[in-house]
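ok here's Endonuclease IV, seq below lol
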Amino acid sequence: MPESKPRPYRIGATLRTTDTALLRGFAALYARGCIDHIQVRVIPGKTFSRDLAAIAASGIPATVHAPHHGHGVNPCAPAAYNDRPLTEIKKHIEQAMNQTLEAADALGAETIIIHAGWYEPGGRSAALDEFSRFLDRHFDPRFTLENLPAVFRGRPMLGTTAEELTTLAGGKITRFCLDFAHLYCAANYLKIPYPEALEPFRALNIRHFHLSNTEDGSIADRHLPLDHPGGGLPFHEVVRCIRARPEVPVSLEYRKPAGFYASQVAVFDAIYRR
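and the structure came out like this:
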C-alpha cells in the first residue's frame, strides 16, 4: 500500500523479467511505501510467460522497458556488431517486441521505454532511416524514447541529445525518458557543461526519469550507487529537474536486491531534501 505521508516525488526500482526471485523483496518495499512502482525490463526467452505472470500477480504498479542492444534488439541498426544471420536477428526482434507489448498489456503499463541503439561508424544516416522503419513496424503510442550516452564500448549510439531524440521521434513518438547518467556521459564526451546539455530536454514531454551514478568525468555509464565516493553526477541539477516535474516517475536502475534499493531510496531522499 502507498505510504501515509506522500513524498514530493515518485520513485521505483528496476526488475528484469528473469529476476523473479527478487520479487518478494520488491513487493515488501512497495507494501511499506519505500517504492511506488517497478520498471520491468523485458528479457526475451523461454521463461517469459511464467515470469510475467509472477510479476503481474505481485500487483506492483509497473512501467516496461523494452529489450535493447544488450539483448539482441538494436532498432537503428539490427545487424550492427551482431554476427547472426539477419533473418535470425529479425525473428528475435519480432519476438522480443511482441513480448514487450504483452508485458505492457498484462501489467497495465502506460509507458514502454525504448532505445534507438548503436550503429557502426559512418552509419548514422542509415541508422536514422532504419529506426524510422522500426517504428513503422512496431510503433505503440506508449513508446517513450530514452536518451543514450554518445558512445558505448567505443561504439557510437543514436539518441544522445534532445535534438536527436526529436528527430528520431519523427512526430510519432511524443514521450521521452531522461536518463540523467546517460546525459552526464554524453556531456562529458561532447565536452559541454551538464546544465547546457540538460537545458534542451526541458522542452520535451518527459514522462520518465532514470537515475544512477557514474564516475566523475566518465563517458561510460556504470550504474554506480548514488552515494559512490567517486561519482560525478551533479545532483543539484538532477533534483532541480525532478522538482519541476514531481508527477514523473523516477526509476533507479540497478540489478540488485530489495535491500540495496531501500538504501538507495534513502540516499536519494537525503539528496532531494538537502
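fwiw The radius of gyration is 18 Å. kinda neat tbh
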